[in-house]
Write a structure and sequence with these properties.
- By secondary structure, the protein is α/β, with parallel strands linked by helices.
- The chain is built from 13 helices and 19 strands.
- A 7-stranded mixed β-sheet has the order 5-4-1-6-10-7-11, with helices on both faces. A 6-stranded parallel β-sheet has the order 16-15-12-17-18-19, with helices on both faces. A two-stranded antiparallel sheet has the order 2-3.
- The termini are far apart.
- Homotetramer.
- Pathway: Amino-sugar metabolism; N-acetylneuraminate metabolism.
- It comes from Streptomyces tubbatahanensis.
Amino acid sequence: MSSSPAVLAVIPARGGSKGVAAKNLAPVAGVPLVARAARECLAARNITDVVVSTDDPAIAEAARSAGAEVVERPPALAGDLASSEAAVLHAMDQWEERHRTPLHTVLLVQCTSPFLVREDVERVAAAVIDDGADSALTVAPFHGFVWRAGEAPEPGDHQARPGGHQARPGGHQARPGGHQAWPGGHQARPGGEPAVSGGVPAAPGVPAVSGGHAGSAYGVNHDRAVRPRRQDRPEDLLETGAAYAMDAMGFREAGHRFFGRTAVVRTDPARVLEIDDPHDLDRARALAPLLDADRQGPGALPTREDIDAVVLDFDGTQTDDRVYVDSEGRETVAVHRGDGLGIAALRRAGLDVLILSTETNPVVAARAAKLRLPVLHGIDRKDLALKQWCEERGIAPERVLYAGNDANDLGCFALAGWPVAVADAHDAVRAAARAVTTRRGGAGAVREIAGWLVGAGLGGDTDRARGAHPQRNPRPNPAPTPAAS
């Protein structure tokens, strides 16, 4: 048995969710939230074990697939009023009973923080393991002016700290108006609610006014009569809600996550996001191609070591999804010559490559013949065809990269280990993808994918792909050329 202290990361993930249905299984960059959190914890060097506490069989399956252990949460700890602390204490008891090993340190990790990284998990754990703190939490620098609707508390009221700072009962994060305040600015929610002058959303039936008692507000962390420059203000720290570490024995005695000497671990403010409603989930999916870039983990781009086969949709992936019809009814499509170079590079690297399409037009077979690729077209159930093809060739589906653009590709996305959407794919396809190209279909997306996998000999595409920043103004699609050319 290792002499290293037992350090357990507990990820509470119950099945019920009010704001977002099946929230903990919602995919971001093609990976369920619970799996993203589990992978980052498993990759942290000072975490010895990772447990997901859940009452939901589907969440348990996703957690095990990601490599985490599962503790079945009893119904009494799975309701809306159950605390995260209660779930962690139960998971600690179950883990110690299974492994017959006392815990040194325990972490509470929230999978609703999709951009938590292993380095932050390591540092919050190290604050307790190595630096002697009793408890620790991840924070982000915050320079915003916090307001609250209503009358200011009287001097000496315990609701306010000296200097107007908000007291947080029990140490739990309080968000102004119940919404997350973003470091460096106010959070704008698409379709956001009307707000009173203090920035708090107006309740249904309450007018959003700025004058009189109904709309009065006061500064929580500042004197509203004084507007100092940012550099003259003390730095506040926003609790990110992503990760907490506690001395195991002290946590059992205290019963809550903050006790004794509490250390703060500063994190990147750009990565602070908690998913509480559908807007947050949409924002996470939009940000994932940027924030997941160049990371070995959830959302990272695949390499040759990850992939044995590449399967390509045709229309909308190798073309711009348009069809040109002449006066005789003949159809042509536009393809990108760079994609042909990328496919040739994939074949030279020893990868199996297949074109899989529902399209019955002979142009698909003609293009496949030009590229010297096998093709399955006129296929209604592409997922079944892909499964059979993998079985016949002895290829594990989890080592298949499948590139597509529309709803008929989602079945293959669920089967392949690396579902990839082209930049202009349908929103549902982008949301289910594990990676998204910066190039549009028919504009070099396949060459970009080849650059991820083989790199050398494909010019600068590898560098651009590794940057993983979606083009704000993708270059125009190429002029139509005969598909077989």
